[in-house]
Amino acid sequence: MEFFNKVGKSALGSRLRLMTAVITDDAAKIYELYGVDFVPKWFPVFYTLTEDRELTITEIANEIGHSQPSVSKIIQEMITAGIVQESKTDDKRKNNVVLTEKGLLLSQKIKQQLRDIEVAMDTLISESKHNLWAALEEWEFLLEQKSMFKRVSDQKKIRESKDVKIVEYKPEYQEAFRALNVEWISTYFEMEEADYKALDNPDEYILNKGGKILVALYDNEPVGVCALIKTNVHDYDFEMAKMAVSPKAQGKNIGWLLGQAIVEKAKDLGAKKIYLESNTILKPAINLYYKLGFEKVFGLETPYKRCNIQMELVV
Asked: For position 52, what pLDDT does the model report?
């Protein structure tokens, strides 16, 4: 076990596979001990059919949590061994699977074996400091709520977001401000006149009117931008606009960091209400706005054809 001590929890999958191999090897020996000609991997399918039921392959797969191709392969092996057989259903496109006479006799033969295994497992649990069976049930539940992939992905975001710096706009960032916005707008929509006004003349259209532009830097490269545009329309102090993140920098929480920084900047400037416009096809962006505390509003005029949702934040 020196390898696992070195690698640690990152090798969980490998360690579980090794334990599975050890237990499966013992399972084969146990069947031999009881004089049962049986392959351990058949057990979930076999046990499901021991309750005098006829089930389709899909039903078996759903019940035991295996894939349909995996169950199909096991069924074919068990048919070859004479343990199960298929029978036609009323729906000619489906076959039911049922135990044969040999399979029924086998189910009676292994009953005592299963009782002995249950007692042996209880003994092992009583000897151990931690109840592995209970822990597995708990882990299965937790991983169903949030997968290991999602947990690692979230951790990656947290780690990488620590290397992101949010800075105020400088003239040297004008090209990045324009390029990042043109890239995302052109990906989903078409550039409009109002876009060119803001992106070609950020000083005149945004900064000189009391607005702000923030830039996200990753490895000192501008990879995200967001603007706060001064407005007095409908009692709004600012519009949050022109948020764009480079596709190569996504997954680093940059949108969230920019959004938080823009809202804080608006508060510093004395804002009471912030407004934004977007489109519902941009689901990650809409989710971000809700997370920041924005709520839907209706009926406001907009210069953008692509706008189909308007939101506000009371700060």
From this structure: 66
What φ, ψ does residue 70 adopt, rounded to 5°?
A: -65, -45
Q: Where are the alpha helices (DSSP H) in the chain?
A: 2-7, 12-33, 43-49, 57-64, 68-80, 101-109, 111-127, 132-145, 148-161, 174-188, 193-200, 202-205, 254-268, 283-292
- In tens, the pLDDT along 5-56 reads 788 888 889 989 999 999 999 999 999 999 999 999 999 999 999 986 789 9
Q: Which amino acid is at 291?
A: K
The CA-atom distances, in angstroms, between 162 and each of 130, 218, 219 are: 36, 10, 11
Overall pTM surpassing 0.85 (yes/no)? no
- What CA–CA distance (Å, rounded) separates 171 from 169? 7
273, amino acid identity = K
Question: Tokens representing 304?
Answer: 């953008």
- Name the CATH topology of 2-151: Arc Repressor Mutant, subunit A (1.10.10)
Residues 6+ apart with CB under 8 A from 306: 188, 189, 190, 192, 279
> Residue type for 19, please?
M
Residues in contact with 269: Cβ distance below 8 Å, sequence separation at least 6, in sequence order: 210, 212, 228, 237, 238
Instruction: Please enumerate in sequence order all residues whose Cβ is within 8 A of that of 195, keeping only pairs 6 or more positions apart, or say none.
Output: 181, 182, 185
At the topology level, CATH places domain 159-314 in Aminopeptidase (3.40.630)
